[in-house]
């Protein structure tokens, strides 16, 4: 039996330690638990989720909810449509040193409306548009992309050509035309209108995933077992494409709130007497030089909401992508190496019958073990010394 001893280098020890760390972290966990653990390790996504939750809770509890006749009061003393007596000439009463909140922390506009209440109402409407538009666009995009990717051929060609037609029309133009018509009906209707034309990217991504997944073995097994196409699409293929769908849905939501703010700023979004973050900036653009705080707060909330949604989408992308691995620190790798014991020499025990060999007389030369070897027979006239063995001799 042939035995070859190979001493592992430092890179092999690091690779073994890294594999052992990854195996210990995911041992006994389901796919959902692994995704959740990866997401909560993404600090940017976790902080963004906390900040976004704080903004949503603050917006919907401070001034209450007023939707389709349903009115729930909030804990803040002023309403967004209430005119209050001016205090401190409308300058914000919020102060950090010393920390004071005051009656009008974000200030007042020219007529005396509390900017904090107005911004909270605008955040409510913008968040509502964002969520509804993202949901509608995701549903339409997933359905069209799934059908096109699964059936292919003529169905795929018709649906994708329709998608190309919708893509060629600028979304801001469609939103301006439809927003001017339906904006007076409220933020919910505006969100539906935006979602009806923002699904094109989602459909293309889902189509690509379905084209790849429909050729997998589990789909063939489902067909053989007699499963219908609807069950194969929504119960077998769709769960395997959920990562792409969730990530793109967050990007759609971030784009929807920016589009709504742009439309409202141009006057084609949410109409009076209601308001939104973009409309607050549009209504008070003449007071930029005298009351700049009216622009600071809605702008800060627009940027904060869009950034939080984008960071959450980035964290979801890393969590659902199996190729994304967190590199362990040197201390963790040394600890894993000590826990598993030192990596000893690697023994290569190859049976002679399995190795490539050449019979020379009564001796055997193993070509897999020896790199340079010589003919053990006595030299014959004309032989050149140090010439490698010719197996045909």
Automatic annotation (TrEMBL):
Compositional bias segments (type: Basic and acidic residues): 324-333
Gene Ontology CC terms: plasma membrane
Key word Lipid biosynthesis present: no
Pfam family, one: OppC_N
UniProt superkingdom: Bacteria
Subcellular location: Cell membrane
Membrane topology type: Multi-pass membrane protein
SUPFAM superfamilies: MetI-like
Domain ABC transmembrane type-1: 123-313
Keywords from the named record: Cell membrane, Membrane, Transmembrane, Transmembrane helix, Transport
Bilayer-crossing regions: 46-70, 127-151, 158-179, 185-206, 237-259, 294-316
Chief subcellular location: membrane
GO biological process, alphabetically ordered: transmembrane transport
Keyword Membrane: yes
InterPro entries per record: BP-dependent_transpt_permease, MetI-like, MetI-like_sf, OppC_N
PANTHER family referenced in this protein's UniProt entry, alphabetically: D,D-DIPEPTIDE TRANSPORT SYSTEM PERMEASE PROTEIN DDPC-RELATED, OLIGOPEPTIDE TRANSPORT SYSTEM PERMEASE PROTEIN APPC
Family as reported in the entry's similarity comment: Belongs to the binding-protein-dependent transport system permease family.
Protein name: Peptide/nickel transport system permease protein
Organism whose genome encodes this protein: Microbacterium pygmaeum
């Amino acid at each position: 039996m042939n035995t070859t001893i190979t001493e592992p280098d430092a890179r092999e020890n690091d690779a073994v330690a890294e594999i052992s760390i990854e195996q210990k972290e995911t041992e006994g966990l389901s796919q959902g638990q692994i995704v959740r653990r990866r997401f909560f390790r993404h600090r940017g996504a976790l902080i963004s989720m906390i900040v976004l939750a704080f903004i949503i809770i603050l917006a919907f509890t401070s001034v209450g909810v007023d939707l389709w006749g349903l009115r729930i009061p909030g804990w803040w003393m002023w309403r967004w449509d209430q005119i209050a007596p001016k205090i401190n000439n409308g300058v914000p009463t919020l102060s950090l040193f010393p920390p004071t909140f005051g009656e009008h922390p974000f200030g007042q506009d020219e007529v005396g409306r509390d900017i904090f209440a107005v911004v909270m109402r605008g955040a409510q409407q913008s968040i509502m548009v964002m969520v509804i538009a993202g949901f509608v666009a995701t549903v339409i995009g997933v359905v069209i992309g799934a059908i096109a990717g699964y059936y292919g051929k003529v169905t795929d060609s018709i649906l994708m050509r329709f998608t190309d037609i919708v893509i060629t029309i600028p979304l801001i133009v469609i939103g301006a035309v439809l927003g001017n018509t339906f904006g007076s009906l409220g933020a919910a209707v505006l969100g539906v209108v935006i979602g009806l034309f923002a699904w094109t990217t989602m459909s293309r991504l889902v189509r690509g995933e379905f084209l790849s997944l429909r050729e997998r073995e589990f789909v063939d097994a489902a067909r053989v077992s007699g499963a219908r196409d609807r069950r194969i699409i929504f119960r077998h293929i769709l769960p395997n494409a959920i990562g792409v769908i969730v990530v793109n849905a967050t990007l759609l939501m971030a784009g929807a709130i920016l589009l709504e703010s742009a439309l409202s700023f141009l006057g084609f979004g949410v109409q009076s007497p209601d308001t939104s973050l973009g409309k607050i900036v549009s209504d008070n653009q003449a007071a930029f030089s005298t009351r700049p705080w009216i622009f600071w707060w809605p702008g800060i909330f627009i940027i904060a909401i869009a950034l939080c949604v984008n960071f959450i989408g980035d964290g979801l992308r890393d969590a659902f992508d199996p190729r994304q691995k967190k590199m362990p620190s040197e201390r963790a790798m040394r600890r894993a190496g000590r826990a598993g014991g030192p990596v000893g020499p690697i023994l290569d025990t190859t049976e002679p019958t399995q190795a490539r060999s050449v019979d020379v007389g009564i001796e055997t030369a193993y070509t897999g073990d020896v790199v340079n070897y010589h003919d053990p027979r006595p030299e014959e006239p004309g032989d050149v010394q140090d010439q490698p063995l010719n197996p045909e001799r």
